Amino acid sequence: MKVRLYICLISLSAVGVVLLLFEMLTLNNYAVFWAKESVPQSVEAGSLRTVNSSILILYWTTVFGHKVNITGSDEQYRWPFFALGENCPVKCELTTNKSRVGEASAIVIHGRNTEEMPTSSQYNTVPWIFHVNESPRFTTAFLNKNIMQKFSYLATQRLDSDFPCSLFLKPKLAKPVPFAQKTGLSIAIYSHCENVRTIYLHRLMKYMQVDSYGKCLQNKPRIPPGHRLDTVMAKYKFVFAFPNSDCDYYMTEKIYLALSSGSVPVWMGTDTIDEILQWGNLKQSVIKVRDFRSPRQLAQYLTWLSQNETEYNKFLKWKYKGFEFPKEYYSSNIGKWWEGGPLYCRVCMKIAKDKHVRSGLNVDKCDGKERRTLEKWIRE
């Protein structure tokens, strides 16, 4: 089933686009189509303790101040971040109607809107789910022990969370624009001018042409609403996919769009991306900034690669071979997200199955090796 997704485009920044692209889904200025995922077919008999009763998940808060629109004009749950599906093995419902709180089996709170959390202890009788796809570096609730101890489950970009829901979605296999027809060298689209990536791009621009469409280091007109970012990216040989932090598992829609467009992403972010790139012929699909000591060295390599069609096309080999996933992929965390049952069906299944719900989640400081510094990325 193909579902049209809508963006509330506040900015082209990682902070603005990331969640609003896939969570708010309100304004008609972007179109992406999703293949319907298959719901797991095997569920152990008797393993779901409330299989005959309905499980109601209540999405309590807004998302960035906007009411969550969980159904479309055809009344189907929004795909994929508010997806329930049609064939869930348990009776499952997702609602934003707070008057039904007495029926709720779990309450979902958005991590950027924790000020809207219910304060009465009467709501603590069911588990709370912390849902966000933003970087912990810019999500203060992650740092607050008093807030995180209220939650039992985590639904985030982390592949090791209870309900992984990464913005790095399964890339499209659409054939890329041929090498000779790509008219641009490289593209960057950022409007949140995080210090390290902005300095890196500024230095990179001294050695190669970078077309910058966002507010940061802008040298091209802003992309008008209604223009698909992947269509713009497809005309370029390289897309700079630099998220605003290096937190574990923080991968934004830029990496997905770059791969889907048939350009070659240049990645400056967490090494945990390798847990995804190890599958489906994607291992040589991304150029990593970490492999170069400086913007100068990276620019030299990209310039050389842009003039060597055979070497360049090696990064697009997966587009022609297909994914060719091994059996082990389907039991991996990213395999479960890309191929498994819809998000809220999985939530309902776990709520139905869990007899002992943990109390409290750990804070996430995105510190230590995860902390972004200029010295980490420029070493000469």
Molecular structure report:
The protein is 23% helix and 11% strand. The protein has 380 residues and is of the alpha/beta class. It has 2 domains: 49-166 and 336-353, no CATH class; 179-321, Rossmann fold (3-Layer(aba) Sandwich), CATH 3.40.50.11660. It has a 5-stranded parallel β-sheet, covered by helices on one side. Strands 7-6-8-9-10 form a 5-stranded parallel β-sheet, with helices on one face. Helix 3 (195-204) links the parallel strand 6 and strand 7. Helix 3 (195-204) packs across helix 7 (295-305).
Radius of gyration (Å) = 21 Å
Q: Which class do the helix and strand fractions yield?
A: alpha/beta
State mean pLDDT (0 to 100 scale).
Answer: 86
* Helix-residue proportion: 10-25%
Q: Which CATH class of the largest domain?
A: Alpha Beta
Compact overview of the structure:
With 380 residues, this protein is of the alpha/beta class. It has 2 domains: 136 residues, no CATH class; 143 residues, Rossmann fold. Helix content is 23%, strand content 11%.
Layout: helices, strands, pairs:
Elements: H1 14-24, E1 55-59, E2 92-95, E3 106-110, E4 128-131, H2 145-148, E5 153-155, E6 184-188, H3 195-204, E7 211-212, H4 229-233, E8 236-241, H5 253-261, E9 264-267, H6 274-277, E10 287-288, H7 295-305, H8 309-313, H9 317-321, H10 333-339, H11 343-353, H12 374-377
Parallel strand pairs: 1-2, 1-3, 3-4, 4-5, 6-7, 6-8, 8-9, 9-10
Helix pairs in contact: 3-7
Family: Belongs to the glycosyltransferase 10 family.
GO molecular function: alpha-(1->3)-fucosyltransferase activity
Transmembrane segments: 5-22
